[in-house]
Amino acid sequence: MLWPTSVRLSDEYFQSLTKSAVPLDETAIRALAHGGALTGAESKQGG
Fold first, then answer.
1. Which of 6, 8, 23, 30 has its CA 20 to 30 A from that of 14?
2. Overall pTM > 0.85
3. Dihedral sign, CA of 31, 28, 26, 42?
């Protein structure tokens, strides 16, 4: 196994992540979830 199945974050670190979250493109997430890679044209289409 390369990676553990779970990680434990300190409360302070978790709070910093939720305060500084980066908005994600749902189209890109769906493509990556299905094993695809985005090209420049696909990533500029927006969603």
1. 30
2. no
3. negative
